[in-house]
TrEMBL record:
It comes from the Bacteria. This is Multisubunit potassium/proton antiporter PhaE subunit. The keyword Chloroplast does not apply. GO terms for cellular component: plasma membrane.
Length: 163
């Protein structure tokens, strides 16, 4: 019964909290309006998400978050080194077509978000059959190195989390 009213309770709680923070008030009217939005928006958007994500290994998700944060910090310095370095370093960008083992739609979306969020890499395209991902890399010295790195640091943990 509760799942029918609140399909995503954490999302509803987050929406209510954001509404109150953005309006900087705890007045009864804003609490009621925020609660209405927090219940209504997930109900309204529920048909857009026919497949529910299930985190099979939350501890791996927390570890992956740490890896992504550390990689993002390191990549900021690497990108600065490329941009401020010689012209030869700046002309070393390229595309990688990475074969995928990950098939879960939530895992694939998360992988694309991670690659786009980390400086120096951008996810460009996912094949229609989900067999490969096209990635642009700012400093492409060794294509296999990048494929192995992405596979071990991001794809394998995402498979543990979602599949």
């Amino acid at each position: 019964m509760i799942r029918r009213i609140l399909p995503w309770p954490l999302t509803s709680l987050f929406l209510l909290a954001m509404w109150l923070l953005l309006n900087q008030t705890l007045s009864l009217g804003h609490i009621l309006l925020g609660a209405l939005l927090a219940v209504g928006i997930p109900l309204w958007t529920a048909p857009l998400r026919p497949v529910r994500a299930r985190l099979r290994r939350p501890a791996v998700a927390v570890k992956l978050l740490g890896v992504v944060i550390l990689d993002s910090i390191k990549s900021n310095f690497d990108v600065a080194r490329v941009i401020l370095g010689s012209k030869a370093k700046r002309d070393n960008s390229g595309f990688i077509r990475m074969p995928l083992a990950l098939q879960d739609p939530h895992g694939l979306t998360t992988l694309a978000l991670i690659l786009t969020a980390i400086p120096g890499t951008v996810c460009i395209e996912l094949a229609d059959d989900k067999s490969w991902l096209l990635i642009h890399v700012l400093d492409l010295n060794d294509e296999q190195f990048w494929i192995d790195t992405i596979r071990t640091r991001y794809e394998q943990p995402l498979m543990e989390i979602f599949e």
